[in-house]
Amino acid sequence: LTCTLFLSLVILVTCLIGMVYLLQKMLMGMSTRIIYKATDLHPLLSMVVGVGVTMIVQSSSITTSVLTPLVGLGVIRLDTMFPMTLGANIGTTVTGILAAMVSDNITSLQVALAHLMFNITGIVIWYPVPFMRNIPLNAARKLGKATRSYRLFPLIYILVLYFGVPAILIGISTLFEEDTKAYTALGTMLVIFVFLAMVYFVYWWKYQEGESKTTACLATRQKKLITMETLPEDMDYLKSELARLKSHTGLADEVKDDEVAEEDVEEEA
Question: In sequence order, what are the residues at sequence separation of 6 or more whose Cβ sits closer than 8 angstroms to the Cβ of residue 113?
């Protein structure tokens, strides 16, 4: 099972890289401007488009995986992709509802409707009010800037958010489930520690230039990474230029003559 999941992940990443490469080659010049204007729709209509496309492909992951590189290439605006993604979240519930309607068990239909209402509630909370709408949009822009500053940032983000944080929360909840005073006290101390750490992080990020320091650190690491990647090519270029300079100035022959003269003096001595 582990090998199958790993192979599936490798195939998915390979397909996404190939798709981005093809989009970069295809969407150039006039075609980019045409798609940009064609997708400049009303938010509600964009949401309907997201619902329809996801109902056809039966997967919101496919819809968002196609839209993400288009936004990165500047073909679709981030403000346009947001309602399409919300619509994709609704469209992906249709498959579950259809499957539940075929089943005779009412519980499956309840779960499918709960999934639908969960996504609709999320849209009602995050999209209609401009202030709430700007929170995920600004977060996406900041994550994009961080990725541009340091290419390994997405990997760190995934490991921390999808593995590190859930592991901490599951570990703390496990301590409280043991129903012993020692584990309960330990869990309480960990909760207080995590809360204080979050408060300090927010204070450091907002009032101690944490954001600018983090951006500078990521930019420095990216420069080091680029330097290490281009170092062999730079060394080969310097060697070729040095060889060309020696052949042009005759410096190599003079050095050889000096070495021969030194050897003759040593032999006479």
Answer: 97, 100
Could you tell me the CA-to-CA distances from 90 to 42, 43, 61, 246, 261 in Å, in that order?
Answer: 18, 15, 12, 69, 85
Exposed, middle or buried, 222 (CB in 10 Å: 0-12/13-18/19+)? middle
Please choose, from the candidates 97, 56, 64, the residue with its C-alpha nearest in 3D space to the C-alpha of residue 81.
64
Cα angle vertex 15, ends 13, 19, to 5°? 115
Q: Write the pLDDT tens digit of every residue in 77-127.
A: 888 888 888 888 898 888 888 888 887 778 888 888 998 999 999 999 988
DSSP 191-239: HHHHHHHHHHHHHHHHHS-HHHHHHHHHHHHHHHHHHHHHHHHHHHHHH
Q: Tell me: the pLDDT tens digits for 186-213?
A: 888 999 999 999 999 889 888 888 878 8
CB of 55 within 8 A of CB of 98? Answer: no
Q: What is the spatial distance between Cα 64 and Cα 90, in angstroms, rounded to a whole number? A: 13
Per the confidence metrics, is the pTM higher than 0.85?
no
| Whole-Å CA distances, 61 to 85, 89, 92, 103 | 10, 9, 9, 25
Q: Which two tokens stand for residue 80?
A: 């346009």
SS3 state of residue 160: helix
pLDDT averages per 10-residue partition of the chain, 269 residues: 77 75 63 63 84 81 78 79 88 86 83 90 89 89 83 86 89 85 87 92 86 81 80 77 70 53 58
Alpha helical stretches, state H, 27-163: 30-38, 43-57, 60-72, 78-102, 106-126, 130-149, 153-159
